[in-house]
Amino acid sequence: MQIKQISVFLENNVGRLGEVTKVLADAEINMRAMSIADTADFGILRLIVNDTDRAVKALNEAGFTTRETSVVAVEIDDVPGSLARLMELIQQSKVNIEYLYASPEGKTGKAVVIFKLEDHAKGLQIIKENGLPTVDAF
Questions:
Q1: 3-state class of 4 per DSSP?
Q2: For domain 3-70, which architecture applies?
Q3: Which pTM value belongs to this model?
Q4: 129, 85, 136: which is closest to 114 by C-alpha?
């Protein structure tokens, strides 16, 4: 399965991240996972939310620039070594990971790892062939 991620482009100014969270809160959007990467001038906030379409609409109406991207979300046990085993599998398949971030899944003892893969289809095939559970929402 794949999941939709929202990327929000932010100026690197005091309060911009707070503005995003306020827009989403006012729209009653629940953030499930997030990551932010920054440079001196701008940042990219990556979000998984409970309602992508409404979140994008609310953010765009508030003047934010957004982009939707398909990513792979894999559920793993929240124990030492689970991520290492997943990384080994991806490495053996020779699929490049462009970036990843993780979030607690909500189930006791589980986490979700969100991947942006260079070859999305091949990576998803390897994950499925090895019986790893993917999620389309959490």
A1: strand
A2: 2-Layer Sandwich (3.30)
A3: 0.87
A4: 136
